[in-house]
Amino acid sequence: MGISRALITGIGGFAGQHLGRVLRSLEIEVRGFTLTAEGNSEFHRVSDYGDIGDVDRLAEIMAANPPDVVYHLAGLAVVGDAWNQRRRVFEVNTLGTGTCLEAIAAAAPSARVLLVSSGLVYGHVAAANLPVTEDHPRRPRGPYAASKACAEIVASEFCASHNIELIVIRPFNFAGPGQGLGFVSSDFACQIARIEAGMAEPRIRVGNLEAERDFTDVRDFVGGLIAAADRGVNGTTYNLCSGQAVSIMTVLTKLLAAATVSIEVEPDPDRLRPSDTARLVGCNALARTELGWWPRIPFEQTLVDTLDWWRQRVRQEQATDG
């Protein structure tokens, strides 16, 4: 399909900003919607602000400049802390998805919707069923995964009832430069950068290092979103993943190898999650076949770029404090 205008909900977030940059490079007109202007200076001139639950505000924005595609990235990506804010997670991730779709139906019913869900909706998957494919049942564990599974159900029902094109994207772990705290590779990189700068003792605190995850670079991930908007089949769900499992220990080891100082490792019980899945890896065969997409950026490069980004942030912090 031809795309000339795109709306990104959550444009101020990690993936939203990367997506906005790529769409601009493709000369696609980008509009954004996000909660606040904080951290969104790059897209401030093309963004509107408000709560994802404000259907009238969303409809007004869409009616003023109807998009060809809505990339619905807005949400609370608080996997580890979701137990402490369960109600808010469902309000934003599930009910907010419904509100966004109501606005689309009212003001931009011909737009194609890209709903970003999560590979965590699969929950615990037996080793015999890995790598997990899109037809595997949803068995979410934890509030965040449950909120995303519910958002998929809400979106599927609503779009079918209103004849709106919907594509569901299930990313697994994506990482890269610009990712905030609360995510394993970024947390490790931030700690290392602060230690290198003499801002913290040479000790890194870790949770469960045995868990294995499927990592994709955020820049590859947004390429998958764009491919899905252009070539995805209406009503289809796509895993965007590498198809390879990497242990958290491996993530840590690779980052420590890139550090410029010697660092000790210290277990931290506060970093353990109540229902952590031991191993989760996805199958990207459908995305390869129908979207022509697969990850291009080596995971080692992702980690180096993430660490370098945090080093730059730490230098900026030191300059400001100084």
Strand percentage lies at 15-25%
On the 0-100 scale, what is the average pLDDT?
93
Distance between the terminal alpha carbons, to the nearest Å?
52 Å
Shape: globular
Given helix and strand content, the structural type is alpha/beta
Write the element-wise H/E pattern from the N-terminal end onward.
EHEEHEHEHEEHEEEHEEHEHH
Helix content: 40-55%
Please name the defining characteristics of this protein:
9 helices, seven-stranded parallel beta sheet, 322 residues, 13 strands, two-stranded parallel sheet, alpha/beta, globular
Task: Describe the 3D structure.
Helix 7 (248-258) crosses helix 9 (299-321). The strands form 4 sheets. A 7-stranded parallel β-sheet has the order 3-2-1-4-5-6-11, with helices on both faces. A two-stranded parallel sheet has the order 7-10. The protein has a two-stranded parallel ribbon with strand order 8-13. It has helices at 14-25, 55-64, 86-107, 143-162, 184-196, 218-231, 248-258, 285-291, 299-321; strands at residues 5-9, 29-34, 47-49, 69-72, 112-116, 165-171, 173-175, 203-206, 212-213, 215-217, 237-240, 246-247, 264-267. It is of the alpha/beta class. The model has no long low-confidence stretch (mean pLDDT 93). It has 9 helices and 13 strands.
